[in-house]
Specification:
Length: 79
C-alpha cells in the first residue's frame, strides 16, 4: 500500500477528486512502475479545479506521461 503521506495528498477539497484519487491509490498504485508513480505524484501538484477537468475527461493534458496517469485513474474508477 502507498504511504500515508501520499494518501493525504490524494485527499482534496472535492468529493469527486477524493473518490478518483483514493480509488486509484488503493486499487492500482502499488502495481505501477516507479516512473509512473513519479508521474502520479507530479499530477497531484495540479490545482483541484484543473485536475477535476482532466479526470472528468473535459481536457487533455499536454504531457503524454501525465495523460497516461489520468487515463489510468479514470479507468480505475469505472466498474
Amino acid at each position: 500500500m502507498a504511504n500515508t503521506r501520499l494518501a493525504w495528498q490524494c485527499r482534496r477539497g472535492m468529493l469527486e477528486l477524493d473518490l478518483f484519487l483514493s480509488t486509484f491509490l488503493e486499487k492500482k498504485y502499488d502495481q505501477l512502475s516507479s516512473d509512473v508513480k513519479k508521474d502520479f505524484v507530479d499530477l497531484l501538484e495540479t490545482a483541484d479545479t484543473e485536475l477535476l477537468e482532466y479526470l472528468m475527461g473535459r481536457h487533455v493534458h499536454k504531457e503524454a506521461r501525465i495523460q497516461y496517469v489520468i487515463d489510468a485513474i479514470r479507468k480505475s474508477s469505472t466498474p
